[in-house]
Amino acid sequence: MGRKIVIIGGVAAGASAAVKARRTDEEAEIVLLERGPHVSFANCGLPYFISGVIGDREQLLVIPTERLAGRYMLDVRLRHEVIRIDRTAKTVEVRQSEDGRVYRETYDRLIIAAGSRPLLPELPGGKLAGVFTLSTVEDAVAIREYIQNNEVHFGAIIGGGYIGLECAEALVTLGLRVALLERLDQVMPTLSREMTAPIMAQLAGNGVDVHLSAEAEALLGREHLKGLRLRGGEEVPADLLIIAAGVAPELELARESGLQVDLGIVVDEWMRTSDPEIYAAGDIVLSRNLAGGNPMRVPLAGPANKQGRVAGCNAAGGDLRFAGVVGASVVKVFDLTVGRVGMHEEDARRAGYDPLVSYTHSSHHATYYPGAEVMAIKLIAERLGGKLLGAEIVGGAGVDKRLDVLATAIYAGLCVKDLEQLDLAYAPPYASAKDPVVIAGMVAANIQRGELKTVTPHELIDLTAAGVRMQIVDVRTPREYKSGHLPDAVNIPLDDLRGRAGELDTEQTAILYCGIGYRSYHGTKILAARGFKDVRNLSGGMSTWQWVGKVVAGEGQGMKVV
Ligand code: FAD
Description:
By secondary structure, this protein is α/β, with parallel strands linked by helices. It has 17 helices and 30 strands. It has 4 domains: 181 residues, FAD/NAD(P)-binding domain, CATH 3.50.50.60; 115 residues, FAD/NAD(P)-binding domain; 114 residues, FAD/NAD(P)-binding domain (3-Layer(bba) Sandwich), CATH 3.50.50; 100 residues, Rhodanese-like domain (Oxidized Rhodanese, domain 1, 3-Layer(aba) Sandwich), CATH 3.40.250.
C-alpha cells in the first residue's frame, strides 16, 4: 500500500478529492468518511426534487456509493463522523452513528471537506412537525412526504436568498399558498437592491407573499405547525416551513485541532492548510478573491468541486493549483434568471475603489427574431483604469451565458474597454450583432473615457435631496411621457431636441433620460454640441429608475413605484 489519505466529508469537495487522488496515485489507500447516508449527492437539485421537476430520488445520487467505491477503489464509510483530529499523532477519531462505536484512523494526508450546515434561528416551536431545513436528500424526501401525507395548503419560507427563492418556487409549483420572510429589506442580499425589483414583481406575479424586514418570533401549533408569529405581532398561516436562513461552515474540527481559521479555513493555492499534511476544500475554506478585495468564502458547488480536485491531486503527490474565485452565481426565480459575479458596488467602495456604475437593458437576441427577452445588466468597474469589478444581470433567456462571459472577463482581469471589443458569436436566434455584454461594455467604456457623462438613479436622488438645480428632460415620445415620468421632467422628444434646445438653460445641469438610456445618450451629444455646460444621461433610463425612484403616475396608467 502507498500513502494513506483520509477524507472527511464525501459530497462535492470530498468526492472530487477522492476520485482525483485515485487518478493521481493508483497505490494510495483512500478512506472516505461521511457522516450522512450518502456520498456524492446533488444538493443543488434538492429544490427541484421537492417540486417534482426531478421525479426520482435516485437521480440526486450523482454516483452510487458502490460504484464510487468499486471503480475508484475507495474505502467509503457512510455514517462515520470524524469527531476529532489529532495532528501530532496524525489520527482522526471517528464515531459510527449506527452503534456509537468510536475508533481511531491514522492518516498520512488528511483532507477536510466537511462543508456547511444550515443556520437555525432560535424559535419557540421549532420542534413542531412541518418545520424543515434543506441540505440533504433526506430533508428533501421528508418535505415531499410531509406534503403528500398531510393537509398542507400554506407554505412559508424563512430566508430570501437563492435557496429560499428556489424553495418558494417549488412550493408554488405544488399548489401551495406561499409566504416568504426576509429579515433584510430586500430579497437576494448578494444583489443590489434595485436589481431585486424584477424579482419582487416575479414573486408577486406568482402569488408569493413576500414580507421584507420581517422576523419570525415564534412558530404556532400544537404538534403540527399552523403558522408563524412575526415580530410586531402579525401572524402568517403555514402548515409547512422551510428554514433557508443561510449556512455556517463546519469549522469546529479545524479550530479545535489548531489549524489557522479565519472566516473559513486558511489554505494556500495547493489547498494546503497551515499544517502541510492537511488539505481542505469546499464550503469551509477561504479563497483568493480574483475580483479584488479580501479572500472570501464562496459556499457554492463550482468552487467546491474544483478545490476538491486540487486537494485530492496534491494530497496524493501531484501538483495542481486553485487560482481563486470570482463569486459567480445564478438562480432561477420562476421565469426570471438572476446572476451576479465579482464585487457589489458597496464592496468596491469599501475596498477603496471609486466605482463606475452603468445600467443597460438589451435583448438576449435580435429583436426582429421572435421571442426576444430583455435583460438588465449592471456593471461595476474601476473608474480610473476601467477594470471590471462586478456585474449583476436580471432577465430571462440568455442571462446565464452573459453572466459566464462576464465571469470569464473578471477572471482574466479584463477592463470595460475589452468588453466592447469582445468578438462573440452571433446569429438572430442566439444574440444580437451587438451582444448585451458588448453593449454594456460600450456604455461603461464611454463613461470611463469621458465620452458619456451619466448619473445613476441613486445619484440623481442624492442630487435632488441636496437641492441641486437641474433641468430634467424626458426625450421619449409624448405618449411615453404621459404613461409616467420623473417628477419635474419636461418632455422634449429626441427628434425635436435640436429645434427646441433653446427652451433649456445651457448653464444649468441637464439630465436626459428615455426608456433605457439609448435615445437620451444621443440627446446628450446634441446638447453638448450646442454648448451646454453639464449634460448627463440617466443610466438605465426609465427602466432602472422605476426600480429605484419615484415615478409620477401617467394618465390612467398608474405606474407603480417599486
Ligand atoms: P457539502 O456538500 O456540504 O458536503 C460536506 C459533507 O461533509 C456532508 O455530507 C457532511 O455530512 C459531511 N461531514 C461534515 N462534517 C463531517 C464530519 N465531522 N465527519 C464526516 N462527515 C462530515 N451551489 C451552487 O453552486 N449552485 C446551486 O444551484 C446550489 N444549490 C444548492 C441548493 C441547496 C438546497 C443546497 C443545500 C446547496 C446548494 N448549493 C448550490 C451549494 C452547494 O451544494 C455547496 O456549496 C456544495 O455542496 C459544497 O460542497 P462541500 O463538499 O464543501 O460540502
